[in-house]
Amino acid sequence: MWQIKKSRHYIFHYFPNSLAEKEIKEIVKNQEATYFEILDFLGVKNNKIINYFLYPDNKIKGEMMGDDGNGNTVRDKFEVHAVYKQDIKCIGAHEDTHLLSLPLGLSVELFREGLAEFMSKTWHHKSHNFWVRKYLTENKIPDLSVIIDDEKWDKIDDMVSYPCAGSFVKFLIRKFGKEKFFELYKNMNPRKGPQNNLKKVFEMTGKTIFELQREWERKINT
Fold it and tell me: Taking each helix axis from N to C terminus, what angle separates 24-42 and 109-120, rounded to the nearest 10 degrees?
């Protein structure tokens, strides 16, 4: 059933007569360029091929791999599973960043998704800061000291949490530099609990996450 297109760093799997098949050359070109952008920014190396599965809709994706979301990764198999149709083309940097950042370790979701969004640059075709400003006026910005806990993160609407995380990570990188951010990223361990991670934030930045959030929100509004 799957049609296959191999490139230097990917094996793309897609349905015959699908939009992905029609646009596969452009998909390959874009993903290969994105691949190098991610590795260059992260300063890591990768010698694994990424298997990319492109589904024609969410229903088929859910039936075939058990998750009907737009996109997700399977880390141990180094796979990306993504919906690719006219109104949802789930390609680009986000899912690839999850796989290529594995040498940095598994940080908390706030930082993992934030880094993936930072590399993606936009959320639903608008800047992350656009969405943060909108949610600030609507009083929807989550308390980062709470959602640093992965269990609490999972309860927040993706439409809110993802652009907020992307914007916050961008703020941290600009304030402290990417090397300091990567050090912080590596020290955030979801298995050690939120209190340990909150302590690490203070030890490594000299500020509580509450103070950092207030500074981030002020910058967004200026």
Answer: 120
